[in-house]
Design goal:
271 residues; mainly alpha; elongated
Length: 271
Protein backbone atom coordinates (compact mmCIF):
# COMPACT_ATOMS: atom_id res chain seq x y z
CA UNK A 1 0.00 0.00 0.00
CA UNK A 2 2.87 2.35 0.81
CA UNK A 3 4.15 1.93 -2.75
CA UNK A 4 0.93 3.50 -4.04
CA UNK A 5 1.36 6.73 -2.06
CA UNK A 6 2.33 8.57 -5.24
CA UNK A 7 -1.29 8.26 -6.41
CA UNK A 8 -2.42 10.30 -3.39
CA UNK A 9 0.22 13.00 -3.84
CA UNK A 10 -1.81 15.07 -6.37
CA UNK A 11 -4.68 15.15 -3.85
CA UNK A 12 -2.62 15.84 -0.74
CA UNK A 13 -4.85 18.75 0.29
CA UNK A 14 -7.92 16.51 0.57
CA UNK A 15 -5.83 13.72 2.14
CA UNK A 16 -4.57 16.18 4.78
CA UNK A 17 -7.90 17.91 5.42
CA UNK A 18 -9.71 14.62 6.12
CA UNK A 19 -7.67 13.52 9.19
CA UNK A 20 -7.52 17.09 10.53
CA UNK A 21 -11.31 17.34 10.41
CA UNK A 22 -11.53 13.91 12.03
CA UNK A 23 -9.31 15.15 14.87
CA UNK A 24 -11.75 18.02 15.34
CA UNK A 25 -14.64 15.54 15.60
CA UNK A 26 -12.70 13.38 18.08
CA UNK A 27 -11.91 16.41 20.25
CA UNK A 28 -15.58 17.42 20.28
CA UNK A 29 -16.61 13.87 21.20
CA UNK A 30 -14.16 13.85 24.10
CA UNK A 31 -15.58 17.12 25.40
CA UNK A 32 -19.09 15.72 25.78
CA UNK A 33 -18.44 13.54 28.89
CA UNK A 34 -16.82 16.49 30.70
CA UNK A 35 -19.78 18.73 29.91
CA UNK A 36 -22.18 16.03 31.08
CA UNK A 37 -20.21 15.62 34.30
CA UNK A 38 -20.37 19.38 34.79
CA UNK A 39 -24.16 19.29 34.41
CA UNK A 40 -24.46 16.58 37.06
CA UNK A 41 -21.88 17.90 39.53
CA UNK A 42 -22.32 21.66 39.23
CA UNK A 43 -25.89 21.83 37.96
CA UNK A 44 -28.07 18.99 39.27
CA UNK A 45 -26.27 18.47 42.58
CA UNK A 46 -26.25 22.20 43.37
CA UNK A 47 -29.65 22.95 41.89
CA UNK A 48 -28.20 25.51 39.46
CA UNK A 49 -30.70 25.57 36.59
CA UNK A 50 -28.84 28.29 34.68
CA UNK A 51 -25.65 26.22 34.66
CA UNK A 52 -27.60 23.25 33.32
CA UNK A 53 -29.10 25.34 30.51
CA UNK A 54 -25.81 26.97 29.50
CA UNK A 55 -23.89 23.70 29.59
CA UNK A 56 -26.66 21.99 27.64
CA UNK A 57 -26.42 24.65 24.93
CA UNK A 58 -22.63 24.19 24.94
CA UNK A 59 -23.13 20.44 24.40
CA UNK A 60 -25.39 21.15 21.41
CA UNK A 61 -22.79 23.51 19.96
CA UNK A 62 -19.99 20.99 20.51
CA UNK A 63 -22.10 18.27 18.86
CA UNK A 64 -22.74 20.49 15.81
CA UNK A 65 -19.03 21.31 15.45
CA UNK A 66 -18.25 17.59 15.71
CA UNK A 67 -20.88 16.87 13.07
CA UNK A 68 -19.27 19.38 10.69
CA UNK A 69 -15.89 17.78 11.30
CA UNK A 70 -17.23 14.29 10.61
CA UNK A 71 -19.08 15.34 7.44
CA UNK A 72 -16.04 17.26 6.19
CA UNK A 73 -13.79 14.27 6.85
CA UNK A 74 -16.14 11.99 4.92
CA UNK A 75 -16.28 14.39 1.97
CA UNK A 76 -12.52 14.94 1.69
CA UNK A 77 -11.63 11.29 2.31
CA UNK A 78 -14.10 10.28 -0.42
CA UNK A 79 -12.59 12.79 -2.85
CA UNK A 80 -9.05 11.58 -2.17
CA UNK A 81 -9.92 7.87 -2.32
CA UNK A 82 -12.07 8.05 -5.45
CA UNK A 83 -9.51 10.07 -7.41
CA UNK A 84 -6.79 7.76 -6.14
CA UNK A 85 -8.77 4.80 -7.50
CA UNK A 86 -9.48 6.47 -10.83
CA UNK A 87 -5.80 7.20 -11.48
CA UNK A 88 -4.75 3.72 -10.38
CA UNK A 89 -7.37 2.08 -12.59
CA UNK A 90 -6.20 4.12 -15.58
CA UNK A 91 -2.57 3.12 -15.08
CA UNK A 92 -3.53 -0.53 -14.64
CA UNK A 93 -5.50 -0.47 -17.88
CA UNK A 94 -2.55 1.12 -19.69
CA UNK A 95 -0.29 -1.56 -18.23
CA UNK A 96 -2.57 -4.34 -19.48
CA UNK A 97 -2.53 -2.78 -22.94
CA UNK A 98 1.27 -3.02 -22.95
CA UNK A 99 1.34 -6.74 -22.00
CA UNK A 100 3.17 -9.11 -24.30
CA UNK A 101 1.43 -12.20 -25.66
CA UNK A 102 3.28 -14.26 -23.07
CA UNK A 103 1.83 -12.18 -20.22
CA UNK A 104 -1.63 -12.30 -21.76
CA UNK A 105 -1.42 -16.10 -21.83
CA UNK A 106 -0.28 -16.09 -18.21
CA UNK A 107 -3.15 -13.99 -16.83
CA UNK A 108 -6.75 -14.98 -17.39
CA UNK A 109 -9.11 -12.28 -18.62
CA UNK A 110 -11.34 -12.77 -15.58
CA UNK A 111 -8.39 -12.25 -13.27
CA UNK A 112 -7.48 -9.00 -15.02
CA UNK A 113 -11.08 -7.79 -14.75
CA UNK A 114 -10.99 -8.51 -11.02
CA UNK A 115 -7.78 -6.52 -10.65
CA UNK A 116 -9.25 -3.54 -12.49
CA UNK A 117 -12.56 -3.54 -10.65
CA UNK A 118 -12.81 -5.32 -7.31
CA UNK A 119 -9.17 -4.91 -6.26
CA UNK A 120 -9.13 -1.20 -7.03
CA UNK A 121 -12.37 -0.74 -5.06
CA UNK A 122 -10.77 -2.52 -2.11
CA UNK A 123 -7.81 -0.15 -2.26
CA UNK A 124 -10.17 2.83 -2.45
CA UNK A 125 -11.95 1.60 0.67
CA UNK A 126 -8.62 1.11 2.39
CA UNK A 127 -7.56 4.68 1.63
CA UNK A 128 -10.88 6.03 2.89
CA UNK A 129 -10.69 3.94 6.07
CA UNK A 130 -7.12 5.08 6.66
CA UNK A 131 -8.12 8.73 6.40
CA UNK A 132 -11.17 8.25 8.64
CA UNK A 133 -11.34 5.25 10.96
CA UNK A 134 -7.60 4.65 11.36
CA UNK A 135 -7.25 8.28 12.41
CA UNK A 136 -10.35 8.41 14.61
CA UNK A 137 -9.87 5.16 16.51
CA UNK A 138 -6.31 5.69 17.89
CA UNK A 139 -6.86 9.31 18.91
CA UNK A 140 -10.27 8.58 20.41
CA UNK A 141 -8.81 5.67 22.37
CA UNK A 142 -5.82 7.73 23.53
CA UNK A 143 -8.00 10.68 24.52
CA UNK A 144 -10.43 8.41 26.37
CA UNK A 145 -7.60 6.77 28.31
CA UNK A 146 -6.17 10.17 29.28
CA UNK A 147 -9.58 11.37 30.44
CA UNK A 148 -10.18 8.15 32.38
CA UNK A 149 -6.83 8.46 34.16
CA UNK A 150 -7.53 12.13 34.91
CA UNK A 151 -10.97 11.45 36.36
CA UNK A 152 -10.16 8.29 38.35
CA UNK A 153 -6.72 6.64 38.23
CA UNK A 154 -8.00 3.65 40.21
CA UNK A 155 -10.83 2.85 37.82
CA UNK A 156 -8.53 3.50 34.85
CA UNK A 157 -6.59 0.37 35.83
CA UNK A 158 -9.51 -1.61 34.37
CA UNK A 159 -8.59 -0.18 30.98
CA UNK A 160 -5.03 -1.40 31.49
CA UNK A 161 -6.46 -4.92 31.46
CA UNK A 162 -9.23 -4.59 28.86
CA UNK A 163 -7.37 -2.62 26.15
CA UNK A 164 -4.44 -5.07 25.74
CA UNK A 165 -6.96 -7.92 25.74
CA UNK A 166 -8.90 -6.22 22.93
CA UNK A 167 -5.72 -5.81 20.88
CA UNK A 168 -4.84 -9.47 21.38
CA UNK A 169 -8.31 -10.59 20.25
CA UNK A 170 -8.20 -8.34 17.16
CA UNK A 171 -4.69 -9.49 16.28
CA UNK A 172 -5.70 -13.14 16.60
CA UNK A 173 -8.80 -12.73 14.45
CA UNK A 174 -6.94 -10.82 11.73
CA UNK A 175 -4.09 -13.31 11.70
CA UNK A 176 -6.52 -16.23 11.47
CA UNK A 177 -8.77 -14.64 8.83
CA UNK A 178 -6.06 -13.31 6.48
CA UNK A 179 -5.38 -16.65 4.69
CA UNK A 180 -9.10 -17.07 4.03
CA UNK A 181 -9.33 -13.70 2.29
CA UNK A 182 -6.44 -14.69 0.02
CA UNK A 183 -8.44 -17.76 -0.97
CA UNK A 184 -11.56 -15.61 -1.45
CA UNK A 185 -9.64 -13.51 -3.97
CA UNK A 186 -8.51 -16.60 -5.88
CA UNK A 187 -12.05 -18.01 -5.98
CA UNK A 188 -13.42 -14.68 -7.17
CA UNK A 189 -10.89 -14.75 -10.00
CA UNK A 190 -12.19 -18.19 -10.97
CA UNK A 191 -15.81 -16.99 -11.00
CA UNK A 192 -14.95 -13.98 -13.16
CA UNK A 193 -12.90 -16.14 -15.51
CA UNK A 194 -15.77 -18.59 -16.10
CA UNK A 195 -18.22 -15.73 -16.53
CA UNK A 196 -15.99 -13.88 -19.00
CA UNK A 197 -15.31 -17.00 -21.06
CA UNK A 198 -19.02 -17.78 -21.31
CA UNK A 199 -20.00 -14.25 -22.29
CA UNK A 200 -17.31 -14.08 -24.98
CA UNK A 201 -18.02 -17.57 -26.30
CA UNK A 202 -21.79 -17.61 -25.84
CA UNK A 203 -22.40 -18.34 -29.55
CA UNK A 204 -20.05 -21.33 -29.43
CA UNK A 205 -21.71 -22.63 -26.28
CA UNK A 206 -25.13 -22.43 -27.93
CA UNK A 207 -23.88 -23.91 -31.19
CA UNK A 208 -22.52 -27.03 -29.44
CA UNK A 209 -25.40 -27.20 -26.92
CA UNK A 210 -23.07 -26.88 -23.92
CA UNK A 211 -25.33 -24.75 -21.75
CA UNK A 212 -25.87 -27.46 -19.11
CA UNK A 213 -22.15 -28.12 -18.85
CA UNK A 214 -21.31 -24.42 -18.55
CA UNK A 215 -24.06 -23.91 -15.96
CA UNK A 216 -22.57 -26.69 -13.83
CA UNK A 217 -19.09 -25.26 -14.35
CA UNK A 218 -20.18 -21.82 -13.22
CA UNK A 219 -22.15 -23.34 -10.35
CA UNK A 220 -19.05 -25.14 -9.04
CA UNK A 221 -16.96 -21.99 -9.21
CA UNK A 222 -19.72 -19.94 -7.59
CA UNK A 223 -20.24 -22.51 -4.80
CA UNK A 224 -16.51 -22.64 -4.08
CA UNK A 225 -16.42 -18.86 -3.82
CA UNK A 226 -19.51 -18.74 -1.60
CA UNK A 227 -18.15 -21.42 0.75
CA UNK A 228 -14.79 -19.77 1.34
CA UNK A 229 -16.35 -16.28 1.55
CA UNK A 230 -18.77 -17.48 4.25
CA UNK A 231 -15.91 -19.00 6.24
CA UNK A 232 -14.04 -15.70 6.12
CA UNK A 233 -17.18 -13.75 7.01
CA UNK A 234 -17.88 -15.97 10.03
CA UNK A 235 -14.43 -15.25 11.42
CA UNK A 236 -14.88 -11.50 10.93
CA UNK A 237 -18.38 -11.70 12.44
CA UNK A 238 -16.87 -12.92 15.73
CA UNK A 239 -15.07 -9.59 16.05
CA UNK A 240 -18.00 -7.39 17.05
CA UNK A 241 -19.62 -9.73 19.63
CA UNK A 242 -16.27 -10.32 21.34
CA UNK A 243 -15.48 -6.60 21.46
CA UNK A 244 -18.97 -5.80 22.72
CA UNK A 245 -18.66 -8.44 25.43
CA UNK A 246 -15.32 -7.10 26.63
CA UNK A 247 -16.55 -3.50 26.59
CA UNK A 248 -19.73 -4.38 28.50
CA UNK A 249 -17.72 -6.33 31.07
CA UNK A 250 -15.44 -3.32 31.52
CA UNK A 251 -18.47 -1.03 31.99
CA UNK A 252 -19.92 -3.38 34.62
CA UNK A 253 -16.53 -3.52 36.35
CA UNK A 254 -16.28 0.29 36.41
CA UNK A 255 -19.80 0.62 37.84
CA UNK A 256 -19.15 -2.12 40.40
CA UNK A 257 -15.83 -0.86 41.70
CA UNK A 258 -16.95 2.76 41.40
CA UNK A 259 -20.00 2.01 43.51
CA UNK A 260 -17.92 0.23 46.12
CA UNK A 261 -15.41 3.10 46.19
CA UNK A 262 -18.09 5.76 46.54
CA UNK A 263 -19.80 3.76 49.29
CA UNK A 264 -16.54 3.45 51.18
CA UNK A 265 -15.83 7.18 50.86
CA UNK A 266 -19.34 7.98 52.13
CA UNK A 267 -18.87 5.76 55.15
CA UNK A 268 -15.59 7.44 55.94
CA UNK A 269 -17.27 10.85 55.64
CA UNK A 270 -19.98 9.81 58.11
CA UNK A 271 -17.41 8.52 60.57
Amino acid sequence: MWKLKSYLRPYWKAALAAPLLMLLEVYMDLLQPRLMASIVNDGVMKGDLRHIQLTGLAMIGVALIGLLGGVGCTVYSSIASQRFGADLRTDLFDQVQSFSFRNLDRFHAGSLITRLTNDVVQLQNMVQMTLRILVRAPFLALGSIIMAVTISPKLATILAVVVPLLFLVLYGLIRFAFPYFSKVQAKLDAVNTVLQENLVGIRVVKAFVRSDYENKRFGRANDDYTTIAMKASRIVAINMPVMTLLLNVSIVAVLWFGGISSGTDRCRWVI
